[in-house]
Amino acid sequence: xxEYIAPLQRxxxxxxxxxxxxxKTAVRLAFSVVSGxxxxxxxxxxxxxxxxxxxxxxxxxxxxxxxxxxxxCSDLDRDGGIVCVVEDARDVMAMxxxxxxxxxxxxxxxxxxxxxxxxxxxxHIKELLARLEDEEIREVILxxxxxxxxxxxxxYLARLLAPFSVKVTRLAYGIPVGGDLEYADxxxxxRAMTGRxxxx
Amino acid sequence: xxEYIAPLQRxxxxxxxxxxxxxKTAVRLAFSVVSGxxxxxxxxxxxxxxxxxxxxxxxxxxxxxxxxxxxxCSDLDRDGGIVCVVEDARDVMAMxxxxxxxxxxxxxxxxxxxxxxxxxxxxHIKELLARLEDEEIREVILxxxxxxxxxxxxxYLARLLAPFSVKVTRLAYGIPVGGDLEYADxxxxxRAMTGRxxxx
Lengths: 200, 200
Prior knowledge:
The structure is a homodimer of 200-residue chains. Chain A is α/β, with parallel strands linked by helices and 200 residues long. Chain A contains seven helices and six strands; from the N terminus they run H-H-H-E-E-E-H-E-H-E-H-E-H. Chain A starts with 5 loop residues before the first helix and ends in a 6-residue tail after the last helix. The first copy, chain A, has two domains: 6-54, Helicase, Ruva Protein, domain 3; 76-173, Dna Topoisomerase Vi A Subunit, Chain: A, domain 2 (3-Layer(aba) Sandwich). In chain A, a hairpin with a 6-residue loop joins strand 1 (56-57) and strand 2. In chain A, the strands form two sheets. In chain A, strands 4-3-5-6 form a four-stranded parallel β-sheet. At the A-B interface, helix 1, helix 2, helix 3, strand 2 and helix 4 of A face helix 1, helix 2, helix 3, strand 2 and helix 4 of B.
């Protein structure tokens, strides 16, 4: 033998397809599923199918949603005048954990990356422009990631939004709270210096 | 919100149940399933069900098996006179990768651990004793893990097998090949010393 029996190998291969799961981890996970109860395997299997089938895209902000509108968009207490533009649904969750943002979101579904064939048409940019036409938006916060792609996307959007009478802002860069100056990279330190604020 | 929508949260919870998968990893894996294609999700879901349903226990050695007998037990070229006793099916795979062992196995399904309520009855020990009665076994190699539980299990089995006219051996302990004396722990070094062999 020296090979796993077919149904086990297939499950190992499925686990390996997941991001950050290497060969040994895939084997450990597959064995754990096989050693568990039949109910546990059925529940896991069903959760995968249901998550894939029941999660849709919010008609307004392109966030993940069970219904036509995502929980943020269907919350009437949120301020529709402010739109925070993020790369993906995980970023919405990160912002929501802060709890003091009461505006809405717009999920791009990624960042511009011409090298990987991701141009403006691959992102939910036209949906954002449509919202600027239809809704009364006062401010667009560009909250893409502080990476090369995220930056390029923010710059692209800033230029695209210039003709609209809307305030366009970007998240502040600086040293992370609890971080150590000594370990901050030069670019971050430079941004922290140029973005310095008066203490009143 | 600040909580994931229900089908996503359920999938995250399922991933978190797997060994060694923490909160952040579970979120990453769940998002990856949801972002993937419907076919990928179906294939993953089905692989889990099939692995659980199609993998049985070998009637003879208690190894994982698709059929009544596992690939090793159904291989007529294997020497049925030698039985290598291991804790679980993963250990069979590890031994098989060495490629020079041509005997059979016996999978205990764990190691004795009274603290966790795992006594001799929880392991496939009576199946091993039945094999000693029914088959012509010359040697039993105790290849449980070199942990406290594995050691205790090996000692327990050695005592249990004493009345049978069978040679009982244990895997050699020593410094791992490619290892460094400096980094070997005291117990391993002590075992390597006491188990030292004449060079001829």
